[in-house]
Amino acid sequence: MKITWPASKSALPRLRLRVTATAESILRSGHPWLFADSIHELNRPGKLGELAVIYDRKDKFLAVGLFDPDSPIRVRVLHAGKPQTIDRAWWRMRLEQTLATRKGLFDDRTTGYRCINGESDGWPGLVMDRYGNTLVVKLYTAVWLPRLEEIVGLINELQPSERLVLRLSRNIQKVAEADFKKVDGQILQGESLNQPVIFLESGLRFEADAVRGQKTGFFLDQRENRRKVESLAQGRAVLNAFSFSGGFSLYAARGGAKSVTDLDISAHALASAERNYKLNEAMPAVVRCPHEMVQADTFEWLERNKKKFDLIILDPPSLAKREAERAGAISAYGKLASLGIQALNRGGILVAASCSAHVTAEEFFEVVRQSAMKSGRNFTELETTRHAPDHPAKFKEAEYLKAIYLAVA
User: Fold this and answer.
1) How far apart are CA 79 and CA 65, in angstroms?
2) DSSP string for 107-141
3) Beta bridge partners of 167
4) What is the CA radius of gyration of the chain?
5) What 3-state DSSP class applies to 348?
């Protein structure tokens, strides 16, 4: 196993690990995380971001990954199987392969999409989104900080852009600033950003706050569901609950909706939705569609509201950010679906979505179905959906997004 990039700055021996039998099996299955309590031997203390080589009980190569001495996920696996030379050419090939999987997915009507989706693309804890001529790299683990310069160099070679923005998850912001002089929202190259970036999605114009917004500035993962909503909206009164920046609403309006109501507890989110509407004023269908903004808690509003709708989208933020919240989240999803069904006219359609990784798709679909059955109304399940093609999920913990479509009589 040869490791030549980045160049070694010391004569330290290669970092070698041995793990438990259970961890061996998990790594062989393709899982990209090695937890600290699965390591039973290492030849020396490891440094942040260095390559750690994992051997099995027979002293044969098992995997190689990025080491983090301070994280419960001690190694983020880059490669498992047969030994390979990890040098600059290897990293360049990996980026080429990742970018190639997006070719043909989008035309010039969609200039906002995910280029790198973390572990599922072989870049554990790193995502990169494109918004027009701006790229946003977000790091969820500190292991990338020591090699950020090299990664940026490869991105410039293979995916050039006018601007590159760095986003950092909260858990690594202190070490990033103290040890690497990097801060969340930093412009790594290109001109500074004093306003949101404008990009296209399916021909609609949206803004992305690449410097300060949630995630990388916009929720690109719901694109396919937004397109489905557009195809269902003709002649329907639409409620977009947890509307955030109004993505579903604009698609519904363009699809010929009779009216659209944006419902969100955040005034900031509704203001963003209003700006997105103004960005699309040149579209006759959008201008013709009556549009209402309601600032309220969705659960409370649905409980007291008497207005009925023909199409309701329920797309809340994650209701289970940790495993201990899973049971409560499932119950909340069931209540939310019940409230949505009560607010549907005969022949209406419910679109219920979840982005909670701790709630499985099967659990989510089942609680929504149970809510529909308890309502006493006849319903037809139209379809269920999972991840968008630019957001692959190749291991259990990566599976978070799911949606179910019900037609209610």
Assistant:
1) 7
2) -TT--EEEEEEGGGGT-TTEEEEEETTEEEEEESS
3) 138
4) 23
5) strand
Q: Tell me if 186 sits within 8 A of 165, measured CB to CB.
A: yes
Residue 12: predicted pLDDT? 85
With residue 404 as reference, give the H or E element that holds it. strand 402-408
Task: Name which of 344, 399, 402 is nearest 372 in CA terms.
Answer: 344
Burial classification of residue 342, based on how many CB atoms lie within 10 Å of its CB (0-12 exposed, 13-18 middle, 19 or more buried): middle
Distance in angstroms (rounded) separating the CA atoms of residues 74 and 52: 10
3-state secondary structure of 351: strand
Question: Are residues 272 and 364 part of one domain?
Answer: yes
Residues 261 and 389 in one domain: yes
User: pLDDT at position 7, please?
Assistant: 46
CA dist 196 → 193, 216, 331, 338 (Å) = 7, 11, 37, 37
Position of tokens 């990025």?
A: 66
Q: Are 322 and 238 in contact (CB under 8 A)?
A: no
Query: Which secondary structure element, helix H or strand E, spans residue 52, and what is its range?
Result: strand 51-55
pTM of the model: 0.94
Least Cα distance to 138 among 200, 75, 64, 213 occurs for 213
Six-digit token pair at 18?
A: 């041995």
Low-confidence ranges of the chain (pLDDT < 50): 4-5, 7-8
Same domain, 255 and 391: yes
**Sheet strands side by side (includes 39-42):** 33-35, 73-80, 61-67, 51-55, 15-19, 39-42
DSSP 145: G
Q: Which CATH number do you get for residue 338?
A: 3.40.50.150
Q: Which helix (H) or strand (E) holds 299?
A: helix 298-304
The neighbouring-strand residues paired with 130 are 113, 135
How far apart CA 74 and CA 46 sit, in angstroms, is 10
Task: Give how many domains the chain has, as a whole number.
Answer: 3
Strand pairing partners for 259?
237
Does any domain span residue 2? no
Distance (Å, rounded) from C-alpha 248 to C-alpha 263? 11
pLDDT at 302 (0 to 100): 97
Q: Which domain holds residue 22?
A: 15-86
How many angstroms from the chain centroid is the CA of residue 23? 27
